[in-house]
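2024-03-11 09:14:02 INFO receiving multi-entity request
2024-03-11 09:14:02 INFO entity count = two
2024-03-11 09:14:03 INFO echoing inputs for audit
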Amino acid sequence: MADLPGYLHACLNTGKLASLAILVSGGIVLQILACALYNNWWPMLSVLTYVLLPMPLLFFAGSDDSIFSESDNSWVNFTKFLTGASTVGGIAIPSILKHAGVIGWGAFAMELSSYFVFGMAVICYLWMSGDDDYSIL
Amino acid sequence: MDLLELWAIFGPGVAGAVFGAGWWIWLDAVVCSLVTVPFLHYLPGIFASFAALMFNCVRKEDIDYSPYDEGEWRLKLWLFIAYVVSFVSLAGSAGLLIQDSLDKSAPSVWTGVAGVLQCVFVLISGLVYWTSHPE
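2024-03-11 09:21:47 INFO inference complete, emitting structure
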């Protein structure tokens, strides 16, 4: 956006960062509420999937944007496979806990809301990383 | 970009998600079962995962479709064995579903249904990965 002044562009970027921080905080609050409101800490198992989710990208893929491009590299395809397999755990663990009767509907709804808020934060972060930082000046 | 490029970009991720969904469904059946699930019931899922791994080990450019020369018969034998393992695992899970529905002391019908769903999802993830990666 060449027509905006530089300080307004920087202000908008600060707004993006603030909304990303609000999303992450909202996800953490929903996660802790799902455990603390019912005094039942089994939904904390979902935190394992949040920890596991970026690990294939950290270990196997490089620093480029290879997850959003077509690649002939077997390691990049394997990275995508592991990321997809880790993603399902965030939905599967609350579903199995609900089916087994360990948690109720309220905790289940808060778990899924926390998962989707975190997912939205990750997608916003990846979208923000696509901007180049030199367009502010 | 067209649909084929989108499939090549997001296909391995979708394959991983379908694979994870299959194994999580089976874990749900094992956790919620009232009786202990014997190890025999685990085998169709394990063999389906092994079959999906088998036919994704093949590089697609190595498959020779020439009608004149003798092609890579070892590669085709490997793919045939992978197909046989996948079919036998699917048939085995269907047989265990029928056994679970008939026998009263066996695990419940949901365990059999989850076994069939696990095999189907794992094999679908193998097919998705095969069709999506371009190598």
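2024-03-11 09:21:48 INFO post-check: Residues 1-130 of chain B form one domain.
2024-03-11 09:21:48 INFO post-check: The CA atoms of residues 13 and 110 of chain B lie 28 Å apart.
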